[in-house]
Design brief:
alpha/beta; Helix Hairpins; elongated; binds guanosine-5'-diphosphate; binds magnesium ion
């Protein structure tokens, strides 16, 4: 029955569809984990493909970029179209957002015109039904002569039927029927006919694409097709293009409009006809809930305040709600430290494990709840559709920079982690816009910096900490916009491309998808704790503990003996129980204090201490001492390490308070003030991104030059801003 040769051929199945139609969801359902992600050759649009075995066939599934049309205006459209034209997939599955049928059918009719084999997946069937729409799928299939399968991607419904329809069509020898696609009005059809004849006569088999389609594209002034035809036709090219121009001019004259506008209108006319046939709305004119919500959320006056309220609430939640689980994690690490302290013999290994590893990783681990909450909020914004509204609201402000609101989405993602944020700029069409967005995104404060603010703001601003942190984030946003403005007028002159902001309907998010999104991103944080943060903490511990001059140990022993002697001597003369208690308290305080002083002296004389003192002149003007300077330097590895380095340098070994509180106390005792804490936070906010981000900048801009530029600019600006805050504040008598 089955042709044995066929079974061994790899069938290529391309997934096309509008953005947000559920393409990626279906792609994942089809390929599971067997997917490869890369870039399309020559362009930075993401390419996803996966190879699967299905009923004896080898299927290669390719996820095309999401587009609304196949006009060659954006990179996504060009990539999708070229793939279908040149790579000739055996079948294209068009994922249709059934709840937005009209918009989806525009791409569908264009695919139909391309003469490739198409299967429609009527996805989001559940949403369409929920909105009271009824779709006559068999009728749609008949009208366009395309196999139609109904799917609900996020519940994996209809996936197998879809594959089966696609493979059947791919293996059939059926030609793509010509009758069941857009017919234009007589004049246009005549022009197409005439041009098609010229093409047939001049190029015969040399024409790579279907002559009717080529003729339509030439009439529509499609530059890519013009170039291809000209290149293939050689000397006849000029004559061909002239013939096309003649038809164009004739139509322009006749309709008093560009031909491509006429054809677009007619496609929409064709689509309304289909819609009339296949779509019935069962409920009487349902109120479009999304539109109603948007009346408020994107309102000219209240939209912005609401947006800022959401962001503020997000940080408030992150800060306050996160405190409770922190206690549990603290205690867990406390138990771990106690257990290891009991198990390990005194010596270097014990110190390394307790003060280096557990201390270092522990100070960072306590922030996991904060980070989970932050990522949960971001996932909530994305999954409800509010993120797109945020971009819409920011559009005006972004235009000040010469970017559009679309650039704001990577920037918002930067609140989570700059690495995926920088990768998200791939959705921007123009290279200039991309580089500009990449350069300003790191000023959006990433979640790894949150621990630093939490410690510093908590130590110096008490109950106002949440608001101070919010202010820091705001400064970041303002700074990134100001930088964008500056760069746009100095480095990247030129107008931005016009662009329509897409507002997908609001969706009630599913807890499962929220959790997955949150977890996906938090996972990175947890991996970092076992990787870069662990290693960083050990290195910092090593640098802070070596060399260890014996004098320090000797002096420590002497002082310790002195305390003990005094304790014994005093004990002998004290008799009352109360005095004895007071004496014991004095002894343990004195010993703890000695321990701290010894460790501080040790740290100061260590390699790290010497490095810190060497750099002190750089940090002194901004009110940061040598320990702070070292901590900031270590932040290049990962921003979380700033906190753990402070922990090591301030030698927090207090059993009675949590390390977090102890570190705050030590910072307050170190002579830092609210003002210098503020300067340090701003420095952390603005200075050079971490190693991973720097690498992403290099990769995504494709140049070391921009990477170096980003490092130098951000660090220079950080220093300058911190200087202004610190010295300015001092002039005003604030610290
Ligand atoms: P893409 O932009 O086309 O890749 O779209 P995605 O695959 O990222 O899907 C966008 C959103 O729609 C996600 O939140 C999906 O979970 C959701 N989604 C996908 N298919 C369906 C469906 O059939 N019904 C509903 N209600 N949601 C879906
Ligand atoms: Mg996608």
């Amino acid at each position: 029955m089955k042709n044995p040769h066929m079974a061994h051929r790899v069938l290529t199945i391309a997934l096309a569809g509008n953005p947000n139609s559920g393409k990626t969801t279906i792609f994942n359902a089809l390929t599971g984990t067997r997917q490869k992600v890369g870039n399309w050759p020559g362009v930075t649009v993401e390419k996803k493909e996966g190879v699967i075995q299905w009923r004896g066939h080898t299927l290669k599934i390719v996820d095309l970029p999401g587009t609304y049309s196949l006009t060659p205006f954006s990179i996504e459209e060009i990539v999708a179209r070229n793939f279908i034209l040149d790579d000739r997939p055996d079948v294209v599955i068009d994922i249709i957002d059934t709840s937005n049928l009209e918009r989806s059918l525009y791409l569908a009719t264009q695919l139909r015109e391309l003469d490739c084999k198409v299967v429609f997946a009527l996805n989001m069937m559940d949403l369409a039904t929920a909105r009271g729409a009824k779709i006559d799928a068999p009728k749609l299939s008949e009208l366009l002569d395309v196999p139609v399968v109904q799917t609900v991607g996020n519940r994996q419904q209809g996936i197998d039927e879809l594959l089966s329809a696609a493979v059947d069509l791919a293996l059939s020898d059926k030609d793509v029927p010509q009758k069941r696609k857009v017919r234009y009005n007589q004049e246009v059809e005549k022009a197409i006919e005439a041009l098609q004849q010229v093409l047939d006569a001049q190029m015969e088999d040399a024409l790579p694409y279907h002559p009717r389609w080529t003729a339509i594209k030439l009439i529509e002034n499609d530059t890519i097709v013009q170039e291809r035809v000209a290149a293939l036709a050689g000397e006849r090219g000029a004559a061909l293009l002239a013939a096309a121009r003649k038809q164009r001019d004739y139509l322009s004259d006749r309709f008093n409009d560009e031909p491509e506008i006429v054809t677009t209108d007619e496609r929409y006319g064709f689509i309304s006809g289909i819609i009339k046939e296949v779509l019935t709305t069962t409920t009487i004119q349902r109120v479009d809930i999304s539109r109603a919500i948007d009346l408020v959320l994107t309102n000219r006056f209240v939209g912005m305040p609401i947006f800022f309220f959401f962001i503020w609430a997000m940080f408030q939640l992150t800060f306050t709600l996160g405190q409770y689980p922190q206690v549990v994690i603290e205690e867990g690490f406390g138990l771990l430290a106690a257990g290891m302290g009991y198990l390990l013999p005194d010596g270097l290994l014990k110190e390394l494990v307790l003060d280096g590893i557990i201390q270092g990783v522990g100070t960072v681990a306590v922030f996991l709840p904060n980070i989970l909450i932050l990522f949960f909020c971001i996932a909530l914004f994305e999954d409800t559709g509010y993120m797109a509204r945020a971009a819409f609201l920011m559009d005006k402000i972004m235009h000040l920079v010469g970017l559009h609101g679309k650039s704001f989405i990577p920037m918002l993602m930067g609140f989570g982690c700059n690495v995926p944020a920088i990768m998200a700029t791939r959705t921007l069409e123009s290279q200039k816009d991309r580089i500009l967005t990449i350069l300003i995104t790191p000023f959006m404060s990433c979640s790894a910096k949150l621990p630093v603010y939490t410690i510093l703001a908590g130590a110096f601003f008490g109950a106002k900490a949440g608001t101070v942190i919010f202010a820091i984030y705001l400064i970041g946003i303002v700074f990134s916009i100001a930088t964008g403005r500056l760069f746009r007028s100095v480095l990247f002159r030129g107008a931005d491309a016009p662009f329509v902001m897409e507002l997908p309907p609001y969706r009630i998010p599913m807890l499962k998808s929220l959790t997955i999104h949150m977890w996906d991103r938090s996972k990175i944080f947890i991996k970092r704790m076992g990787g870069v943060i662990l290693i960083g903490s050990v290195v910092v511990w090593g640098l802070a503990n070596f060399p260890r001059p014996t004098e320090i140990q000797e002096r420590h022993a002497v002082d310790q003996a002195r305390i003990e002697d005094r304790f014994v001597a005093q004990s002998a003369v004290q008799t009352g129980e109360e005095e004895q208690d007071a004496l014991e308290t004095w002894r343990s305080d004195a010993l703890a204090d000695l321990e701290r002083r010894t460790q501080a002296t040790q740290a100061e004389q260590s390699l790290l201490g010497r490095l810190g003192h060497g750099m002190a002149p750089f940090f002194a003007p901004i009110g940061v001492d040598w320990r702070g300077g070292i901590a900031l330097l270590s932040g290049f590895v990962a921003k979380e390490i700033v906190v753990s380095t402070l922990g090591v340098l301030y030698a927090i070994t207090d059993d009675e308070q949590s390390t977090e509180q102890a570190l705050r106390g030590a910072l307050r005792a170190s002579g830092m003030t609210g003002l210098s804490a503020m300067a340090m936070m701003v420095f952390v906010l603005l200075y050079m991104p971490c190693v991973a981000t720097v690498a992403a900048i290099r990769r995504e801009t494709g140049s070391i030059k921009w990477m170096m530029f980003s490092i130098v600019y951000s660090t220079g600006m950080a220093w300058l801003m911190a200087l202004i805050i610190y010295q300015g504040g001092r002039l005003l008598g604030l610290g």
